[in-house]
Amino acid sequence: MKTALFNSNGNVVGYNVIDTTIFIPIECVHSNDSITYVYISRTKQQVVTGKSNENEIVIRAGLVDIDEIYLIAPEDAEDFRWTYLATAIVNKFIREDTKQAPAVKEDNDMNKGFKKGDFSKMKGGKDRPKGAGNVKQKK
Hints:
Layout: E1 2-6, E2 12-17, E3 22-25, E4 30-32, E5 35-40, E6 43-46, E7 48-52, E8 56-61, E9 81-83, H1 87-100, E10 119-121, E11 127-129
Parallel strand pairs: 6-9
Antiparallel strand pairs: 1-2, 3-8, 4-5, 5-6, 7-8, 10-11
């Protein structure tokens, strides 16, 4: 599977190739609250998903390569039993995702034009630019 990375103009700027894992058509994946699942042999099987493109999604846990999955929900889907992943497996992927999450950039558009250290503390813990003056309340 190839997942493309696009810039703001819609041009491809890179891609990831994933060839040693299970990926399925994205239409096969369903969700109920915070649980992501697929339908296999009279079962709603919980899965952990990964990267995706417009057609396919990586299954990180919950399926093996011989599982046959439904492309759409079957008519009698409400009668299917649930098979949940072990909490330890789900938590493992949550921890991995947390470690890989990009760091939040401290600078934002509101701080443009100010240099580091240009802020001093106001009452109540709020920051403001140096030299902004004190605001006096009228009595």
